[in-house]
Model the fold of this input.
Amino acid sequence: MKPVLDMPNPSRLEDWRCLAPGAFAARPFSSAQCQDLLAQIVAGKAFSSVPREQPNSMHNYGMVVNNTELSAQLACLPDTWLATVIPALFPHLPGGRFGDQHAFMVLYGEDAERELALHVDASHITLNICLENDAQGGEINFTGARCARHVNEPPDRTIVSHRFEPGDVLLHVGNQRHHVSPLRGGRRRNLLVWYRLETEVFDHSNSWVQSICATCSA
Done:
């Protein structure tokens, strides 16, 4: 049986490019693969912009992934597809197992999310897969990694923006602050996974989080 998540070969370090400190991008999926994955996520459900459920405290339009097989495959990615990439891209992370994950899909559009305020994620590592995008605007903007104590400090001098294309995958530390620019039309759907180390708190007060905080290291 074909798996719900038809992953390409194990990711290679050279497939990833650095967008900002602690934020990286690759494009391992084709548009057809994204459409297939999108269909699997919403199979049997007439998904629209009407909020099915609140996938997290900041999004009102989207859905939590409740496909058991897909959830299990997503949970394994740090130990399979990303096994060699995560230690290389994020050498500050302590060793340990990513024992907790929260997977959800978000919808941006004229009758859905229009933008997203500056925030950090409740994760140690975030995986963000663009499944669909014909939006005007809606870029993701990274403003710098911060620890819990400095999360409201001014942004880095260079704010890095990224326009999603279907098949794009972003991988970034949870404490990399980011926001989404206002949409001017169209829509975008992304699948996100928040990964958390099972032996570490994820409030960004960890000493290793402080080690990559631009304010702490200034």
